[in-house]
Amino acid sequence: MNIFEHGTGERKRLALDPALRFTHAVIEGQFVPRAGDLTARGKRQERLHERAALTTSRVFGSRVFVRGVVEISNYCRENCTYCGMRRENRQLSRYRADLDQLAELLLQNRPARITDINIQAGEDPVAVREIALPLIRLLRRETNLGISVCLGTLRYDEYAELKAAGASIYIIKFEMANPRLYERMAAPGTLPERLDHIRHLAATGWNVSSGFIAGLPGETSRALLENFRLAAELPLAGCSVSPFIPGEETPLSGESCGDIELTLNCMAALRLIRPDWVIPAVSALNLAEPDSGYRRGLRAGANLATINLTPADIRGDYLLYKRDRFIMTEERILSAIAAEGLAPSTQSLADHYATRLEKFCESTAA
Ligand code: SAH
Fold first, then answer.
1. Does residue 242 line the site of ligand 1, with CB under 6 A?
2. With a 6 A CB cut-off, is 185 part of the ligand 1 pocket?
3. Which structural domain range is residue 60 located in?
4. Domains: count for the chain
5. CATH number, domain with residue 93
6. Which of 82, 197, 306 to mutate to test the pocket of ligand 1 (most atoms within 8 A of CB)?
7. Alpha-carbon torsion, ordered 351, 352, 353, 357, to 10 deg
């Protein structure tokens, strides 16, 4: 199904179909990015970013969601060419976080502004069982934090267990929409399988956030544009774009970094395609453009910021890109948000998704 070609008038049916429940804005929207939008500079780029920022504030006001992330394991059974945690990286010392340490950190010492916790890892079913599940149960019992997970493609019964434990948001990027590039980059499993999992998660009640990497070596502008079409077709509640960062211990270490301007233009395009999406400012923006990249993300359509809470002794080994990656501390995040004239949301992301769906169903049932 190509949502870009949908007419209006189907909102009610779509609202009732859980796999499609977040697609209505696309049906109403007209924005289809062109190559010129993604390469825009100067005045045209300014206008694009301003339009995206205005759209964000129209839908979300000046609120930015603030979540914490804990990276619970860097074991990975995948072998993505671009990722430092790939299984063939034998330089990397592998860790699984200590559950008690995480529990203490999250129950007693978390930053006050955090409304949600994202639990992330390489693709490691052991960490799902031994760390993620008990941690989610604990957080569900002891706090009202929203819980998202980013744990890769798992078995369907594992997704169900994570949801029963109390997580409600699944973050699973499709990485790149072009099938040949996906294969060349040895991205997780196969593209059809990754997309099946995204659809399955949405159909079983998860709020799914996906995303892609911009500026991969060998990516044509056509391949880049394919990402938007795919993102709009999928049943997503949020979408991200991250600049490609040449990982130090990967076969792509000699390649150049994804262009920050291109990435920001992609973020603005995502916002215009889907005004209601939750779009994160990713920490890699600061690697692509030290210090200012992140703030520029908040100015180009982003409405979600992430404070890194991974304990310092293991953080260095969660190697997506480089060892000296830019750590987004509480102070850096809150000052970036304030400097942009924005404010942390008091409502959690999980709550936002839940109430948003209720409101939408009410409005279409009338
Ligand atoms: N195992 C989980 C989490 C993977 S790491 C999963 O499969 O979803 C989270 C994300 O980091 C990946 O989805 C990928 O898009 C991104 N990433 C990894 N290496 C990267 C790189 N070199 N440049 C940009 N993004 C990268």
1. yes
2. no
3. 32-365
4. 1
5. 3.20.20.70
6. 82
7. 110
